[in-house]
Structures are given as structure tokens and as C-alpha cells.
Amino acid sequence: GSLPGWEEVDRLVVEAHRDALETHEGEVATYIPRLASVDPELFGVSVAEVDGAVHTAGDAHATFSIQSISKAFVYALVCEELGHDTVRERIGVNNTGLAFNSVMAIELNDGHPMNPMVNAGAIATTALVPARSTDERWERIQRGLSAFAGRRLELDGEVYTSEADTNQRNRAIGILLQAYGRIDADPLAAVDVYTRQCSLLVSATDLAVMGATLADGGVNPVTGERVVAASVARDTLAVLASTGLYERSGEWLFEIGLPGKSGVAGGIVTVSPGKGGIGVFSPRLDRVGNSVRGQRATRFLSRSLGLDVFASD
Ligand code: GLN
């Protein structure tokens, strides 16, 4: 089936937003100092359909740093360049069951980054973006993520500086990957590009369009541009299904039944293959780093729009 009619989707997006406003649970991320000063009440919900229709509620145009959600889209760009088998072998597709910044996940697996949605795998993935220089690598990522969003995404310089000044752990992960021979590029330069990609500013509506591009087989439904091949969009969604919400990826799939990816600034993108993308933004996070209101609004929409891929009715 497809989505309900335009007015019904519009109404449900407003209702999902109103319903999730009831919770005030969770805490804003503070380990990146700049993230601590965000207004915790900002809350936006957006749905983009594969025909290009966009529905919004609340602060759907407020911008925030994309953080870990960038991992999904950089992964897609690298799959497009290097292909399914190479990326599978170099990065992996298995859940670690550990925190996104875990060093143990690397140590326990002979230096293998395990999957592209944890920091180790994401830094290794960024290092695989073909480029002659660090600047070129960054430009390709910025251009690629912008193509997913259908508009030029800009860096939040304050978030970038704040994370770059405090990311000793990610730098350690980069160097550990190098020690295991899992990264060929300069590891600190790769971590720097990774930190930049995490600092790109998006809105809930941008995330919805980025998700709808994956839902639409790699074609941005608003601009009509093909960003990646349909097989790459498919592979990206398969990875997200088991790894997109950190240690809560199983609970997410159980409750929502769709591939998604969260970030510590409070964004979540969710994809309903063939139908559309959901973008949400609310800064208060659960213990593992997923937006509390974002999860609730997405669950509401998955159920009311009939999107759960495991449901037969
Ligand atoms: N830039 C953040 C980091 O590396 C992203 C983490 C996240 O969103 N989970 O810590």
C-alpha cells in the first residue's frame, strides 16, 4: 500500500507532534560543550513523501547539527563509489552492542570497525571517500549530503570547534584503527573530516527529504536528482535496520519496524522504503543518545501511517 491521502498525513504529523510534547524526559547532550546550550524545548516533525510532498509540525525548520545521522549518508556515498563487497569487507555490517564511541568494539574484533554507524566504522568510512586531499574529501561529503537534502548544507562552526577541542576519544579511535591497518588515510585528518560532517546543520525537514531520497531508491524526490543507485539506498537501509539507534537498535526495530538513524543533537531520520522519510528533532536524549520525543513521534507515525515493515495488516 501507499501513504494515506495528503490531508490525512498532514493531520497525523500535527498529532504526532502534539502527542510527543507530553514527555519531558531525557537530557540534552553535554559531552560536546556547545550542544549543552540548545533550547531543549525545540521540537520539529516532518514527513517527506516519495512524490515530493512535505508535511511539517512545530519547529520543523529549526536547524541543529546532524551528528551521527551523517554516518548513514556518508556510508551511502562510499558504497556508491566502492561497491557493496569492498565496503562490507572493510567496514562490516554487524551490530557491536556497545556504545557509539566504544574502543572495546575495535579491540574485541581484531581492529575491525564492525559497522559504519558507530564512530570507529564511521571514521573508517569517511577515510574511504576517494579524494586526493583532505579538503577534497570534505568537499565531496558536503556536496553529497547536500544533494540528499536538496539544498546546500552549511557547517556550524561553533559546534565543529567545540567538538574538535574535546574529541580526544575519536582521535584515539582513529589512531587505533591505523594501528590495526584498518585506515589508509591520515587518521587525524579523517577524524577532522568526520567532525565536520557531524557539524553540518540540518532541519527536521531536511532529514525527512534525505530519508525520502533513500526511500525513493536514491533519487531526491524534491529536486529529482539521482544521488546514489537504488542498490546503494537498499544496502544503507539494511545496515540502519540493525545499527541505527546505538544499543537500542533492537528496541527501535521492535517498536517502530523501520530503519532509522539518530544523532546526539536530537535528530532522527527514519525511512519507509518506497513511501517516504520522517525527520524529527528534539534535543532531550535517552541514556544511549536517542531523542526521546523524536522516538515517540516516529513511533506514532509508523503506527498511524501503517509503515511497520513487519506488519501484515
Ligand atoms: N560527533 C559525535 C561524536 O563523534 C556524533 C555522535 C553521535 O551523534 N552519536 O561523538
Describe this structure in words.
It catalyses: L-glutamine + H2O = L-glutamate + NH4(+). Belongs to the glutaminase family. Substrate binds at residues 68, 119, 163, 170, 194, 246, 264. This protein has helices at 6-20, 69-82, 84-90, 104-107, 119-127, 134-149, 157-164, 168-179, 187-198, 204-215, 230-243, 249-256, 292-304; strands spanning 44-49, 54-58, 63-65, 201-203, 260-262, 267-272, 276-281. The chain has two domains: 6-67 and 201-304, Beta-lactamase (3-Layer(aba) Sandwich), CATH 3.40.710; 70-198, DD-peptidase/beta-lactamase superfamily (Beta-lactamase). The strands form two sheets. A five-stranded antiparallel beta sheet has the order 2-1-7-6-5. It has 313 residues and is α+β, with helices and mostly antiparallel strands. It has 13 helices and seven strands. The model has no long low-confidence stretch (mean pLDDT 97). It starts with 5 loop residues before the first helix and ends in a 9-residue tail after the last helix. The longest helix has 16 residues, at 134-149. Bound molecules: glutamine. Glutamine binds at residues 67-68, 100-101, 119, 163, 170, 198, 263-264, 289.
